[in-house]
TrEMBL record:
This is Yeast cell wall synthesis Kre9/Knh1-like N-terminal domain-containing protein. It comes from the Eukaryota. InterPro entries: Kre9/Knh1-like_N, SRP1/TIP1-like. It comes from Umbelopsis vinacea. Residues 1-20 form the signal peptide.
């Protein structure tokens, strides 16, 4: 398990380094995955420039947990995905030991490491469906989403095998309509991070054009521009 600590300084000048065309839409706010069951992951081209074919011909998805400035990698979901050939992935939810809305997915381009996108935080529960509230009501860096604190916590895989890379079907389709609301629920606030120590990760959960408002994208992902700065400085 690797924790990625991000630089806290915000650089507005590099806001455009965040991907403006990869738009994850599932898991969405209030999504609950059940261990052992097939779970939907979905993304789309948000129709802004550059198109997915430019930087997202090859990308990976990682399951993450933790707060916005101390991201914790749990397992790789899939690697080598082609964003222009498919927009849906089915993945079996792993067994975790904290059943709460403290998990999120990080999308990272393998063509351009500074292109990243995040989903909102979502819950993973056991067969009984019981879910607890996130352990922390607000982010350490005081970041908010639509003026509201962003809850978070730290989860763990029960065993590494349960979180192995996806071998499930990748379904080709046209770009789906985005289903995320601008204001994520308190327990499922958008979350994410950027890997700085040799492994690239990350993603935002856009419900509107990311490029038209870089600051909105970062807020929706529950991040500051520090995330991008960390990657740029680590290169």
């Amino acid at each position: 398990m690797v924790s990625y600590t991000l630089i806290s300084t915000v650089f507005a000048a590099i806001a455009t380094a965040v991907s403006a065309n990869m738009a994850p839409s599932e898991p969405a706010p209030n999504t609950i995955w059940t261990t052992g069951q097939s779970s939907l992951i979905q993304w789309a081209d948000d129709s802004t420039s550059p198109p997915l074919a430019t930087d997202w011909k090859k990308f990976k998805i990682d399951l993450m947990t933790g707060d916005n400035t101390n991201q914790i990698f749990l397992t790789n979901v899939a690697t080598g995905l082609d964003g222009t050939a498919a927009t849906t992935l089915n993945w079996t939810a792993p067994d975790v030991d904290v059943h709460s809305a403290i998990y999120f997915l990080m999308f990272t381009s393998l063509t351009k490491a500074t292109d990243m996108a995040w989903t909102t935080r979502f819950a993973i529960v056991g067969a009984d469906g019981v879910q607890t509230a996130p352990a922390n009501a607000a982010q350490p860096d005081k970041s908010t989403l639509d003026g509201k604190p962003i809850p978070w916590g730290v989860g763990h895989l029960v065993n590494s095998a349960s979180g192995s890379a996806a071998t499930n079907s990748v379904i080709a389709s046209t770009a789906p309509a985005l289903s995320l609301s601008n204001a994520a629920p308190a327990a499922t606030s958008s979350g994410a991070a950027v890997s700085a120590a040799g492994a690239s990760q990350a993603a935002s959960s856009p419900s509107t054009s990311q490029k038209s408002s870089a600051s909105k994208v970062l807020a929706t992902a529950g991040l500051g521009l520090a995330a991008v700065a960390a990657v740029m400085m680590a290169m």
